[in-house]
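S2.1 Query sequence (Mechanosensitive ion channel family protein)
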Amino acid sequence: MRKVFLFLFFASLLYLTAAGQQVVKSAGIPVIVHNDTLLRVYAGQGLFNINERAQIITQRLNKIVSRLDFVADSITVKNDTASSVITYKTDMIMVVNDKDASFTELNRPQLAAHYQEVLKTKLGDIFEDTNFKRLTINILEAVAVVILLVVLIWAINKAFRWVRMRTITAWESRLKKLAAKGAPVGYANRALPFINSAVKAVRVFIIVLVIYLALPILFFIFPSSKPIATQLLSYIVDPLKSIALALVHYIPNLLTIAVIFTVTFYVVKLVRFISKEIENGAFTINGFYPEWAMPTYNIIRILLYAFMFVVIWPYLPGSDSKVFQGVTVFLGVLFSFGSSSAISNMISGVVLTYMRPFKIGDRVKLGDVTGDVIEKNVLVTRIRTIKNEDVTIPNATVLNGHSVNYSSTAKTFGLILNTTVTIGYDVPWQQVYDMLINAAEKTEGVLKNPKPFVLQTALNDFNVSYQINAYTDKPNQMAVLYSNLYQNIQDTFNEAGIEIMSPQYMALRDGNHVQMLHNNLPKDYKAPGFSVKNEKE
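Output structure tokens follow.
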């Protein structure tokens, strides 16, 4: 009895399974477009089951019928030995095989032809019913986009007009405040048109960008122009995508560059700290002068950054590009030919720094120029003369010529001021010595110790040349000191009644007035007459 029951159970199960399969075969999966069942799919195909296959066919038909240029007669069938392919122009709709025909009373080519006629008829009807409505909606959407674009452009113009007016108002208010303080405002008036032009340029750029972004939206509304919309968007999206990917891929190199730069930066700061301490005298290095500290720091800094750039070079984007390498070589050659004089001056500036011929504030003579050093840089040296003339001399010229430094030993040994006067042979030289030394000691700025001294430099035809030498520690006042020394020499010799024979006078004094101030002459002094001797033969 139990065996009979099991037999009846399994027989019923097999019957129900067969009946279910028969229901699936007879029902199939419908392909529905615009609420209209066009055909049914009874079997899967390839990797797709029956439901996936019906869904794919439905998507293809919806895409085809939504095209504005849809023509039902363009649906064709191509039969071969294994399958029949239904296509619309170049787009495949579905493939009909022998398994599909097994669910009908038609063979495969007949079934494919039947599907073709059904699709032509029903898709044509659907297209005629929806084409006008869809086109109307698309046009209304396009009009709405255009209106929105116009409103947006109007808003942008109004916003930038407000920004420009606020900018002008704020600028004019600032100009009034500057003018009230006495500051020059001419440059500000010249800058205002530039600001207006910049604001206008930004406005035009934003409007053009908005219009460009609106075009893909307009083209995307109409199915036939969707490829154009995609192409327009790709012109913006693709470069941005490439840039973003390049940045992501460049992050490791960027981190390497950041580490190299950070290490170099802090090494430079360390060198600067040490140089500042040496310059301020916090500690000393034998044979290394404090004034060398900052120039040496500048040289080391340039070398460190140059080394850093060499190390970073392989990590720069495009460094292996032939174009990039060609441009750098061209710039290097151009720099070499165009800056030979500048490089010469730079090297000369470095040499002068370590030669230490003068420093800022020294009174020097460079070639024919005498004055105080007001600036020394890598390229030039600037001198301010006693007439307040700023003279710029290239460092190469300074290095190739000779220089005189009046200040280098003025504070230690003293700078010797010297001038020569000529006195007649009738005046004792001891008296001349005393008078010249007395005149030098009266001069303010001349040192009492070391004591001034006199040298006889020449025995001329009609007079003797005496050179007074006086020490001073104020080389920057040489012109004033010389002037005061000349005054004191004149006063001293006039008070003593001694003529200074400069310029020279003839020894024959008959009839000639003594070359002295009247205040220093006797009250009864009269110029002598000419002595004429008449010899008889």
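The radius of gyration is 53 Å. The chain is about 55% helix and 15% strand.
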